[in-house]
């Protein structure tokens, strides 16, 4: 992600920023240029177009929407197919923080050059049902089906999510992690299952046509197989080939974004200070790793994740990246790297800045 700066004082901003802490300028995110612009009124000229702040700005959405789309809602908010009722303010507060994670996901998908075909343009396009199990008074299953990702807004509550994390024995559970995992199911479907890559995918992850209901029953009855760590990134990944792919996809996005953040900040690690007698002496993460650079990505991540784990421990916190990438897991990540560095032909939609897949007539 590009470094975001205040248009008035050039101070650093976060992707979630609504105003600059340093100078007080109200800001909004302009997707096509990946820059923050000042909100001076309802009409904001950027490039050739007039943009408006998203109508969900009161719910912390800081994106802009092009005037001619006429919806009032930004592209990210339009991707939300189902949201809590207008009078359910408790659920809408959870929606606000959940939508931040969704926008972070979308910015990354865009920077990776992946197509985001929305549900309102095409059957099977990407969309989100963001509902709360607390409001619905029923269990909301987090999952993906036919392009639609369902997220339980109750998981935005730290206490609730942390209780589930401990009960499930997971070292990491975040809303952003849920989004990255679920969108992995979507992209396996779009970029792998509908292409000739499927055979290679099955060779690495297993046959996704295996019964999913049997897999769930087995997973919750007997748990993960002994020695699962050698071949899987997480216990959840052992359940079914689909879950293995989605877990690896999420990890690829975790690694990609953290390396990118380190790179845009100019972080370099001097290994000679760590008394490591090895080459390279300096680890300099890159903003982007090309198709043939997976080994470099993995090597950089080995050192950068080790550094961040040490930094977290220095603060008395758990490891930033509490996972081990074995050779078998690395081959799965390599496959995902290859898929994502060779996306299908697409074109940019100028009114929202996101790519649409170009399909043969
Ligand atoms: Zn400022
Ligand atoms: Zn919005
Ligand atoms: Zn899943």
Brief account:
This protein is α+β, with helices and mostly antiparallel strands. It is built from 10 helices and 15 strands. The strands form 6 sheets. Strands 8-9-11-10 form a 4-stranded mixed sheet.
Report the strand count. Answer: 15
Radius of gyration over C-alpha positions, nearest whole angstrom: 21 Å
N-to-C order of helices and strands: EEEEEEEHEHEHEEHHHHHEEHHEE
Ligand species: zinc ion
Which of globular, elongated, flat, extended, rod-shaped describes the shape?
globular
Q: Which runs of at least 5 residues are low in confidence (pLDDT < 50)?
A: none
Q: Provide the number of structural domains.
A: 3
In whole angstroms, the N-to-C terminal distance is 34 Å
Strand order of the largest sheet: 8-9-11-10
Mean pLDDT: 95
Largest sheet: 4 strands, mixed
Q: How many helix segments?
A: 10
Query: How much strand?
Result: 5-15%
Query: Which structural class do you get from the secondary structure elements?
Result: alpha+beta
The helix content is: 25-40%
